[in-house]
Hints:
The strands form four sheets. A six-stranded mixed beta sheet has the order 8-7-6-9-12-13, with helices on both faces. Strand 10 (281-284) and strand 11 form a beta hairpin. The longest helix is centred in the middle third of the chain and has 18 residues, at 198-215. Helices cover 38% and strands 20% of the residues. It has three domains: 18-87, no CATH class; 116-175, no CATH class; 177-363, von Willebrand factor, type A domain (Rossmann fold), CATH 3.40.50.410. Mean pLDDT is 82; it is low at 106-113, 118-125 and 364-368. By secondary structure, it is an alpha/beta fold.
Amino acid sequence: MSGFRFTKYIPSDKDGDPFERLLKIFLDLLTYTSGDVDEALSWMNQLDREYGLTNDEYGMGDFIEDLKRNGYIQDDDPDGSGGNLVITAKSEQSIRQRALEEIFGKLKRSGRGNHRSPYSGVGDEPLSELKKFEFGDSVENIAFTESFRNAQINHGIDNFMLTEDDLNVREEEHKTQVSTVLMIDISHSMILYGEDRITPAKKVAMALAELIMRKYPKDTLDVIVFGNDAWQIEVKDLPYLQVGPYHTNTVAGLELAMDILRRRKTTNKQIFMITDGKPTCIKEGGRYYKNSWGLDRKILNKTLNLAASCRRLKIPITTFMIARDNWLVQFVQEFTQVNNGRAFYTSLKGLGEYIFEDYIRNRRKRTR
């Protein structure tokens, strides 16, 4: 009878590498400080004093020098004299990678990274199924072994010939491309009442961006933020994202998202919106119309009209509401019904998981 053999646990070199251990903490702190190296290092020094992160052999000064030597931080002055420390592109990519591992850590590898569709025909992924050759089928897809077998059965070995009726071709699976716009609410309520909602939202955005760039290289992802207005940002700017003294102009965000997606040539398009509150602002000419109290019908109607426009353009909107107020839920239900989209009412902890699951589902079928 076989059983379990237990051996002494020997930690790997990486587990004992003080730089790697401190780097994980540093990258997490950079997300909270919106890329402010000085503030992140100040927090690390405080943690070091309280919890003893370093020792006599490896101090915080050694760690800072290793950050510079390994290309994670640099002086913002070209000559390196008296400038502030800033993070590099390597750090930005590392932060996205950390977010990906944290949020989508249980992700399994699959295929070449394109999204599957339930349709067969002219595609780019060969299947095991065979079909009779038809005019227009690619010659490259002919299954010669099966076709020769058919010829032998149909015509015999002595009078061997290969006709069109003998040919079989392999079915191919369509793999869809999708253009996604991720909308992130940066209104003041994302840090209201001492609750940090913007940091988890940033982590989700960075993880989603890294996921698409690695696993779905043919897809497109555009990121926009919205407060009183809406504007597009680069993926590399996500670690630096901060909340402002803004209201929530959902209309501006949707208008910009629709403009971006109109320029995309892909058939499948979608919008993800991460927000924690109701729309409270629209722009009329050169002025802002604002109302933070309740659901303003004037603002609400304009928002619902855009949701309906997205539906007509076959652009589903998946809303991730980080709030549970009954009247907010009622708004999201009405918004989702008008758009024929999806809505999730989730805690901050589950935000990333919901986004990933819904993203994959949208990718496995053709948007109609």
